[in-house]
Amino acid sequence: MFDPDAVNAAPPPPRGPNVLSLLGGIWLRPGRTLRAVAAGPKWLWVLPLLLAVALMLARVFAAAPGLAEEQRARTQAQIEAQFQDMPQEVIDTLPEEATAVPEPSPVLTVGLPLMAGLGGILLGWLVRAALLHVGSLALGGRQSFGQIYRTSAWASFPLILRDAVQALAMVITGQVVKGSGLAGLLASTGTASAAQGVTLPAIVLGRIDLYSIWYVLLLVIAMGAAGKLTRGKAAAVVAFYAALSLLGGLGQLLTQGITGGF
Question: What whole-number distance in Å separates Cα of residue 174 and Cα of residue 260?
């Protein structure tokens, strides 16, 4: 039988998480925020994913003009090197197309960086969650794959902030952000390995900066929040994942060696 008094006395249904509060809390109260994300609804992974994709797109398009200018300069240098030993009277007889600098390909300035960025987010986030999930279970963690994916996605906000800062810097200066992370130390020392171009230490150090250190610390908190791990075990899982991520620089080095540094 319907009882209005019982309905009025019933507690109100639980409200969903306050997204704005979570967005502020990831910077100010990361532990509490990541615990709320781990216990929250499954759709919470969507927000950092959308922001990561949006700011990655902003960074790619902000870098495109600078990359195009660099490609023009490389092509101009190649043309000049090709004709440097040729008599001027012969050069003057060549058609204009032979000495003109072609327009940079959008595939190289936008297409490939865009594919790499999307792959790093869509596939890379899945691989990260899988590695962290397996590592946590091995050390006694008690969580679902979804909890690991959500919390690790929210721990990525320092990397999302880095994309925003770099995109803004490239728009303001018109120059491509290079020498990121500690890789600039190699260039500043003028060592032989730095002079040889891309090296494994440069790639590895290029992945280490204040944003990535902040990100790793948030990952440790996220593993503790999602898997109920002690701080030491959470740090061990994240250290394992970080080591694999840094070793991924070897694949980048091999690829650049095969393609001539592209």
Answer: 26
**C-beta of residue 163 within 8 angstroms of C-beta of residue 58:** yes
pLDDT in tens, 94-119: 666 655 667 788 888 898 999 989 99
Of residues 66, 147, 78, 76, the one with CA closest to residue 110: 66
DSSP state of 156: T
CB 33 within 8 A of CB 154: yes
For residue 83, being part of any structural domain is answered with: no
pTM, 2 dp: 0.77
What's the structural domain count of the chain?
1
Q: What is the CA radius of gyration of the chain?
A: 25
Task: Write the pLDDT tens digit of every residue in 149-206.
Answer: 999 999 999 999 999 999 999 999 888 876 566 654 454 444 434 434 556 666 666 6
The kind and range of the H/E element at 249 are helix 249-258
Tokens of 130: 């899988």
Residue with tokens 């891309």: 198
Residue 197 lies in a domain: yes
Q: CB under 8 Å to 185, separation ≥6 — which residues?
A: 205
